[in-house]
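Appendix B, record 7
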Amino acid sequence: MTKRGFTLIEVMIALAIGGIIIAAGIAPLMFTVRTLANARDNFARVNMERTAVTRIFQDVREMNPLNCDTPFRIVKSDIPGADDGRYFAVWTSTRSYYGLPTSSVVWGVPGESVLRAETRGGLYRWVISDDTMPRSLDVTALNPVSGSLTIPDVKSVSFSVLDGTEWNDSYEGASPRALRVNLKYDDGESIYEEMLPRY
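Structure tokens (predicted):
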């Protein structure tokens, strides 16, 4: 009795069927891995956003109106490359927790022309430790190297305040009723709002 082997066609059919079965099993696995990676990245970004925005609102809630006629200011930057270059400055006592004096704190996204090779785009926070108050701040002089990057890859930010019954993106003076922070990315935007204490 002779033993009959597999023909080349049978082997190729078997390999093709095996490949289809493996591909059918791997495709959902790859989709799951990509979905989990995207969820992880989104979760990390949302966490960074919430931490930064909480800190923004904390700086405002701890605004120190004493000896400062304009403790709160939204500034439009005229820096080339800063299409939506809005900065927000507040005279705040936040640093008193660390035994440091009241100072101006500035939040904003530097324009492309301001970024250096060693800096990354995104939302920055600067602490101006001298006696410079929000009204006399020159945001064009702010260097990303001297600030802290709080959320990378933010393309622009806009701040607006509830002054009376309307939202305004230009404001300086005492604490407004509420603050809105609009963070813009290449793939969308995030908006946060919070009511503020009145002084």
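Remarks on this record: The radius of gyration is 27 Å. The beta strands are 72-76, 86-92, 103-108, 122-128, 148-152, 156-163, 166-168, 171-173, 178-185, 188-195.
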